[in-house]
Amino acid sequence: MDLEKRKYIIYTFCFATFFLFMTRLSYLQLFNKEELSRESDKNSIKTITVTPPRGLMYDRNGKVLVDNKPSYSVTITPSQFDYNNLNEVSEILEMPPDKLEENLKSFKGTNKFNPAKIKRDVDFKVISRIAENRERLAGVDYQTEAIRYYPNEFNGSHAFGYASEISKKSLEKQIGDYYKQGDVVGSSGIEATYENYLRGVKGYEFITVDVKGRELGRLNDGKNDIPPVNGSDLILGMDKDLQEYAEKLMGDKRGAIIAVDPRTGEILCFVSKPDFDLSLFSGKTDTKIFSSLVNDPEKPLFNRVIQTKYPPGSTWKMMMSLAALDVGEITTTSTINCPGSFTYGNRSFADHGSYGNINVIRALEVSANTFYYKLGLQIGIDNYHKYGKLFGFGSKTGIDIPNETSGLLPSREYLDKRYGANKWTQGLLVSLGIGQGELGVSPVQMVAYTAAISMNGLYCQPHFVSKIINNANGVDEEVKFEQRRIDMPQKYYDAVRKGMFLVVNGGGTAQGIKSADFSLCGKTGTAQNSSGKNHSWFVGYAPYEDPRIAICVLGENEGWGASFGAPTAGALMLRYLGGEKYETDGIIKTVGDSQD
Length: 596
Known about the structure:
Helix content is 34%, strand content 20%. With 596 residues, it is an alpha+beta fold. The strands form seven sheets. Strands 2, 3, 4, 5, 10, 18 and 19 form a seven-stranded mixed sheet that branches. A five-stranded antiparallel sheet has the order 12-11-23-22-21, sandwiched between helices. Strand 11 (255-260) and strand 12 (267-273) form a beta hairpin. The protein is elongated.
């Protein structure tokens, strides 16, 4: 190739290259100016995220249950941080250097000037050291934020739940991009269920910076800042004083207490013991403390109100009574002979006494086992399951906190699967008739069932929150929960309620809690426990004429229903109805020696 041709090719290439560059430059300047301007601003503006305080929780009388208090969080802007200071900052934060470095590298984002939250709820001495060395510790700063504060003399840990730093797995699974590493999210209880209300709306402050990240001032004099909106406040049905008293009565025993307003399903008190101190989770959570809770053999993180599956014992007998009445196996006046024991096949089933021919009201009053052994056989497994489902057993109640169990309500399909089709005998129904055998219920299911009986078949979904107060617009939002009617003739409910009245006010198993001021009603129960002492149950409501409280008490390994369940429930019903003058020193004594 001669010299002229080579020169021509070189000139042509240079011209084409120049033309392409000029065309692209013109396009960017003339047609893509706004986008480039935004990108330029983005790279020269430091965005500080302002996390709003979480919404508060109040009881039914306006008393604060869950509050906030100020706290400090340390932030680091990765692009400005001098890794030569890694060990010093690690020492200040009491964080291993490799952990700090891992955290810094894990933060993602397009703006190199945005600070990343490294450690929450640090001591003031940490903030002092950072402030004193601000010039030297480039990129290290702090923010003020709100953390949870619990101003009461009780825990309420399984009800309120806790909020903790969001995990990497949850960040990856989130829909949208609201949460960033270091953010707090509701992890259990009410905090988790109502997270979208409680978290509020983040605010943003925009600071202009030079190429080295030095702050030059507020963008547009702060006019572009977006103020945060505090989380919505929750009004609970809980009664603060009743909750405190309930936890005092439970003491260091294992078990559960739940009381509701039977007219609405609003939860008045909610106790699961053992429990834990929620303040352990309000700021930084010590991994050793959390690990000790997880591995504690007493299982303080286990919510006994909604997660236990124990046989209900004799507290099941109201359900059996209503089922037998509604299918026509008995009437409100018909009698069954109860001679003191019952024999089925080659096995004899014991009773508490010999009562002769008695009707359903008397059977409930004295808790006659033989009466219900026979009813179990008479109504059969299909009706047993049908009516159990009507009263909410074998299903979740829908209480507004997570991890509820559905319990176990045996059906024909269940027995066929467990024992083989046509290989199980009707003898299983004898024990099921008195709330034993392969039947598992939770206290929340039991209180909903008891409340429905007290209200003549009005079943109300148990729930904590009654109202949400939106702090953005000041609008109050009523929260709707399920109510349904369990239709049966009124005389059936009258008979069962009369039996529950006589349990306390007649010659029944809980006559020790009879009150001269309020007509308490209920039913004791004892759940057999093959691995230790039996569990003590009591369900009840008051007053008899106009129910305002329904309650369930479960004492694990506390023996007969009259030993712990009945006196605890009686004390709480009186405290709620009659006020502080009915409060004792918190020591509950056995009110009877009934073996039921």
